[in-house]
Amino acid sequence: MLKIGDFSKLSRISIRMLRHYDEIGLLKPEKVDVFTGYRYYDESQLLDGERIQVLKNMGFGLSVIREIMENYADPGELKHFLEIKRHEIAEQEQILRQRKHLIDSTMEWLRKDGNIMGYDVSLKILPKRYVASVRQVIPSYEEEGRLWHIMMEETLGRNIRYDSPAYDLAVFYDGEYMERNVDVEVQRAVTGTYQDTEHVKFKTAPQVQYAGAVFKGQYEKITKVNEAVAKWCADNGYEFDGMGFNIYHVGPKDTQVPEDYVTEVCYPVKKKQ
After folding, report:
1. What interhelical angle do 62-70 and 75-109 show, nearest 10?
2. pLDDT at position 228
3. Which PROSITE patterns would you find in this protein's record (predicted)?
4. Total number of domains in the chain
């Protein structure tokens, strides 16, 4: 039998943690002296201590580790827990990659003097167009691709002739930023006239005067571009006059490299009275 101090040294688990493991029923001592309260461990429990440490290093919480230890002899159960943790880690890796991209993008915007790089905003006219359109309420802004997928599927094989430029764009109809259930329409300019499908509607889109700024790269930059457009409007005596939209000059259909995307952030505007 090993005293708690000796067991602590051999297992590389602090006495404080061993007492905690005892309290939660994760690793209970083989014997507790009824008079002194001293804890004694069997040498075979060193293996349990090692397993607990390995599982902690994998990222399991103590409550889950206790459940795993109760089923450790069953390879199928152990594999099940490991697969769940592996999936969780993969999701965390994706989140961390996104955060790293956001940090990298922000650092690119910083000048050497610490100021945010500016974007060139200009007043433009989007001409009247005949467009194929899909408008739906989707779970989030990131789900916009499903609208383009619907358009592609329902126009496939119909010999649709797209205009040049096609003005691939998305219009955002909500009057505020929505965390979920967003009202979005995607449009692509076409030549000729066509019958509507189940979800694709063909219509004439009116001419629009807008203030816009073009940027290259991933879509995380849109917030900063929005700020640039808003400041331009304030400085030049314009106000917003309709729903904002993005024009995708180079998008996912053109390249698999997000850093090569070219997007124009646009807001219909009018001169203040």
Report:
1. 160
2. 87
3. HTH_MERR_1, HTH_MERR_2
4. 3
pTM: 0.59
Question: How far is Cα 85 from Cα 229, in angstroms, rounded to an integer?
Answer: 44
**Which regions in the chain score pLDDT beneath 70?**
102, 105-106, 108-118
Alpha-helical (H) ranges within the chain are 4-11, 15-24, 45-57, 62-70, 75-109, 145-155, 222-236
Question: How far is the C-alpha of 115 from the C-alpha of 27, rounded, in Å?
Answer: 55
Q: Do 148 and 200 contact (CB within 8 A), yes or no? A: no
Q: Are residues 146 and 189 in the same domain?
A: yes
- For residue 165, whether the previous peptide bond is cis, meaning omega lies within 30 degrees of 0, is yes
83-120 pLDDT, tens digit each:
999 999 998 898 888 788 767 766 765 654 455 556 78
Same domain, 131 and 261: yes
Report the CATH number that the domain containing residue 67 is assigned in CATH: 1.10.1660.10
Residues 61, 154 within the same domain: no
Domain finish residue from 92, 117, 142: 117
pLDDT at res. 152: 94
**DSSP-derived pairing of the beta strands 182-191 and 169-172:** antiparallel
Q: Give the CA angle between residues 70, 76, 81 to the nearest 5°.
A: 65
Helix/strand/coil for 32? strand
Asked if 24 and 66 touch (Cβ cutoff 8 Å), the reply is yes
pLDDT at residue 112, rounded to an integer: 45
Q: Can you give the pLDDT at residue 102?
A: 63
The answer to whether residues 256 and 196 touch, using CB atoms and an 8 Å cutoff, is no
For the chain, what is the radius of gyration of the CA atoms?
Answer: 30
State the pLDDT at residue 113. 46
